[in-house]
Amino acid sequence: MNGLYRPRHGRVIAGVCAGLAQRFGMAPWTVRLLALLSCLLPGPQFVVYLVLWVMMPSEDRYVARAH
């Protein structure tokens, strides 16, 4: 599966970082660290995380839609 979704396994809070890592071929801890470090910069990073949480489908819904 090559789409953008929140996986069932490997979630810490909502699975957003794990989903982004899986989609772009990175380790989840790397994406989590980058997200955490980006919060030190001014900008709407937390809002973007919340929007992705709402907009990214869970793995169950993604798989159901793919079939």
UniProtKB/TrEMBL annotation:
All residue ranges annotated as the Phage shock protein PspC N-terminal domain in the record: 3-59
Membrane topology field: Single-pass membrane protein
This protein's UniProt keywords: Cell membrane, Membrane, Transmembrane, Transmembrane helix
Domain of life: Bacteria
Coiled-coil residue windows: none
InterPro entries, per database record: Phageshock_PspC_N, PspC
Keyword match Transmembrane: yes
Regions that span the bilayer: 33-55
Subcellular location, principal: membrane
Subcellular location: Cell membrane
Keyword Amino-acid biosynthesis: no
PANTHER family found in the cross-reference section: PHAGE SHOCK PROTEIN C
UniProt-recorded name of the protein: PspC domain-containing protein
Native source species: Actinomadura nitritigenes
